[in-house]
Design brief:
binds sulfoquinovose-uridine-C1,5'-diphosphate, Rossmann fold, alpha/beta, 38% helix, seven-stranded parallel sheet
């Protein structure tokens, strides 16, 4: 199948290009390379060295024998998106090309507005470009489990049956996002559903949990094929940050009580799920939602998991609680469904300890890079506004 990846240079986009190519798909993509700039802006660096775009293209050719059509371009530029779709005629479009960080979007007015404008506008452009230049293409839109928030009831996959004043309907499940970034994804979900209803767009909206991991099998030993791994307060996510902290002897940073529960999944599972969605498209006019995660864990459980695996390989790890810079529920019910992906063949990685072990071993060799940017580990972006570094509270 011809698959266009918007955001092909990112943490997920680059491995997805490699994974899909290995499965026999023809891949093209676009990226503005902004993730590289945002991470530098917040004082971070990828813990794993990443190749330049040119080196990535050469490595892709060496590994697959194929030229990768990877253009540098801004998805908020409609003419660019439309002309790329006209030329490539994608059968599937995977949209990963957005600003993905909650803290970055909470920094100040400018970062909030930039995030929402970028994310909402580029998703609208992709919807319009499919309609005008690649009708029939299937949109696989990366959303987030964070769109739902943490309601005190089970979380279905996108829709639920409601009975109100004696009448019944199947309605979108309420979205209660917890950051300006997560709110941008809620707007995208509404716009994508609407495009399905009015234009007959086929769409899969992926509510993805927090991804962790340093590699997928298809990268082999070629470090030019490697993906990035961030650990700063904005672009580093929980398990990735904990592993980076563990290898440099920095205490793991639990925010608040550490009882917040979220869905997590290994990078390889994220690739598996996206490939399954692409290879099992919905009908024209169908908008379907997949909740995508391996399992739900509390942040404290994950920190102890990382500590346990680290100790098996001889690393001694401390866990500290920091005052939580975010406004989020400290202790809550969390029980989302994830049946739709299982129905089309998703096989969750059975042993996440082995993934964490692999991550720690990959990161040990890159300790110096993490140490040199360790200042970026402590959060200071406050949900209520302003900047104040979090302190250890226990
Ligand atoms: N947390 C800690 N310590 C840390 C980092 C995070 O306790 O050092 C806690 C946070 O307070 C939060 C939870 O871990 O309760 C998850 O935070 P995160 O930074 O790992 O992930 P989040 O901000 O939710 O966002 C990430 C990705 C985003 C994606 C989302 C999926 O950055 O792009 O949409 O995960 S989900 O969380 O399911 O919404």
């Amino acid at each position: 199948m011809r698959v266009f990846i918007a955001g092909i240079d990112g943490y997920l986009g680059w491995p997805l290009a490699i994974h899909l190519s290995a499965r026999g798909h023809e891949v093209a993509g676009a990226d503005m390379l902004l993730r590289r700039e945002w991470v530098a802006e917040v004082g971070g660096i990828s813990a794993l060295p990443i190749a330049s775009r040119g080196e990535r293209l050469r490595a892709f050719k060496d590994a697959t024998g194929e030229e990768l059509d990877f253009c540098v371009g801004d998805l908020t530029d409609y003419q660019l998106v439309k002309s790329r779709f006209q030329e490539f005629q994608p059968e599937a479009v995977v949209h990963l090309g957005q600003m993905p960080s909650a803290p970055y979007s909470m920094m100040d007015q400018a970062h909030c507005v930039w995030t929402q404008r970028n994310n909402v506008v580029n998703n609208l452009n992709i919807l319009w470009a499919i309609k005008e230049a690649a009708p029939g293409a299937h949109l696989i839109k990366l959303g987030t489990m964070g769109e739902y928030g943490t309601p005190a009831v089970d979380i279905p996959e996108g829709f639920f049956e409601v009975e109100f004043r004696g009448r019944k309907d199947r309605l979108p499940f309420p979205r209660q996002a917890g950051s300006w970034y997560h709110q941008s994804k809620v707007h995208d979900s509404h716009n994508t559903l609407f495009a399905s209803q009015i234009w007959g767009l086929r769409a899969t909206d992926i509510m993805q949990g927090v991804v962790f991991g340093t590699r997928i099998a298809e990268m082999g030993d070629d470090c030019r094929l490697g993906t990035r791994l961030d650990f700063d307060q904005c672009f580093g996510t929980a398990i990735n940050r904990f592993c980076c902290q563990a290898v440099i002897g920095h205490p793991l940073t639990l925010y608040g009580l550490g009882k917040q529960r979220r869905g997590f999944l290994p990078l390889a599972d994220s690739m598996q799920c996206l490939a399954l969605a692409i290879e099992n498209p919905p009908e024209a006019g169908e908008y379907r939602v997949f909740n995508q995660f391996e399992n739900a864990y509390s942040i404290s459980e994950l920190a102890h998991l990382v500590k346990g695996v680290a100790s098996d390989i001889g690393l001694s790890v401390e866990i500290n609680r920091y005052d939580n810079p975010r406004a989020e529920m400290a202790d809550h019910y969390y029980n989302p469904d994830r049946q739709h992906l299982l129905d089309i063949g998703y096989q969750p990685t059975p042993d996440i300890q082995s993934v964490i072990r692999e991550m720690l071993l990959d990161l040990i060799d890159n300790r110096a890079r993490i140490k040199a940017h360790a200042d970026a580990l402590i959060p200071d972006i406050r949900w209520g506004g302003g900047r104040r570094r979090s302190k250890v509270i226990g």
